Amino acid sequence: MTSYSNNKTKDLVRISLFMAIIILQSWVPFLGNITIPLYPLAITFIHVTVIVATLYLGTKAGVIVGGVWGVNSLIRAYVMPTSPMYIYVFNSPFVTILPRMLMPLIVGFISHKILSKSVSFKVNAAISGVLGSLLNTVLVLGSIVVFRREQYLSIQDASMETLWSILSGIVIANGIPEMILAGILAPVILIALKGVNGERK
After folding, report:
1. Which of 13, 37, 78, 110 has the highest Cβ tally under 10 A?
2. CATH number of the domain at 2-196, please?
3. What is one Pfam family matched by this protein (predicted)?
């Protein structure tokens, strides 16, 4: 019973640490984004924290951490918007919270139920990092199309005819670099975490 309680306490502490990291990354720009000189868009890596939490602590923990990220994004849209996109698009929980909880749910299932049985730990982490990053991009953009399409088109001064080319551009400019970054960072961070805690890799 004592061992069970200790494990539960340890898990709670770990989840709390990941939640704290997410909150810091959400509110301190340089902790969650990389700004590249002469590059038009910032590269986000907050989702890597959610992916690592999912792989290290389990799917349930990943969904919780993803939810915290989504809630912070929603709060920022109301109290500290940095563009019309935040005010009119990211003010919906269906755009900010739902995708951030669905991503770790899907990644956790694929990683723990499928990849863990067929590939090594490092390969699993790399694939899950790439997959999680792709899902984050696709789910957020998909949610915008479904729930905030008119507002998005108005802000972009675009039409339905040009919507898909705009979204494709975002996937290429942001999505691909973020996928590469997540595929590299996820296994590196997980190996470091397991090493610090003396766990098998």
Report:
1. 110
2. 1.10.1760.20
3. ECF_trnsprt
Size of the chain in residues: 201
Domain boundaries, the chain: 2-196
Nearest to 132 by CA among 170, 179, 194: 179
pTM: 0.92
What count of Cα atoms within 13 Å lies in the side-chain half-sphere of residue 66?
Answer: 36
Q: Which two tokens stand for residue 186?
A: 């996820």
| Contacts for 32 with CB less than 8 Å, ≥ 6 apart | 25, 26, 44, 45, 46
- The CA–CA distances, whole Å, from 136 to 23, 56, 95 equal 18, 18, 11
pLDDT digits (tens, 9 = 90+) for 117-137: 999 999 999 999 999 999 999
Tell me which residue has tokens 């709060």: 75
3-state SS, residue 43: strand
For residue range 49-106, what is the model confidence (pLDDT) as tens digits? Answer: 999 999 999 999 999 999 999 999 999 999 998 889 999 999 999 999 999 999 999 9
Q: Amino acid identity of 189?
A: I
